[in-house]
Amino acid sequence: MLHLGPRNDVFFDLLEKEVANLHEGARQLLSLVNDYTDPQTKVDRLLEIEHRGDDITREIIERLNKTFITPIEREDISGLAFTIDDVLDMVAGVGDRMLLYEAGHPTPEVVEMCKDMERATGALVKLIHEMRRLSFDSVRSLCEEVKRWEMDADQLYRRSVAKLLNEPGYDPIYVIKWKEIYEKLEDGMDFCEDVSNLVEGVILKNA
């Protein structure tokens, strides 16, 4: 049955729930790299958070398929849901690969990149909440914050990969493992910026 009621703000509720779950995943990843003890338990917890995110994304899409009137365009809702899920996939993928690849103790660079991820997803929590109000000034400020963290992580990524490839003494397998882990984090940060761009577009369309 299609729901024809006013606005259906449940979509804002679900997007806020999804991004809060993402932020929890980023905090869990940061906990893992800050204290690499009992990594199996911490990664298991991270994967539980990822699975919960999949469930929330699925609920959003199922509700979209049953709802006629939405508070913003349905493609914006689905785009946000899938992109937030993409960030969480990257976050969980970092922890999972560190464990599966037996990559060893986290590098200082990966710790700093995970801090940027935690900060960026924290800003996304505020950003999705502000989207409900369709307030351009507050959204623009938060989008700029997300982009700052993305730029910082990008610079860290470039320096980290250059260090792996150019400094002598690194085992080639070690280089392959950590280069992929850095790339996962960088991809996740790019998706964070994509979320902020989507929200900015929503605000401009509804101004």
TrEMBL record:
InterPro entries cross-referenced by the UniProt entry: PhoU-like_sf, Put_Phosphate_transp_reg, UPF0111_domain
A Pfam family matched in the record: PhoU_div
UniProt family annotation: Belongs to the UPF0111 family.
Descriptive protein name: DUF47 domain-containing protein
UniProt source species: Kyrpidia spormannii
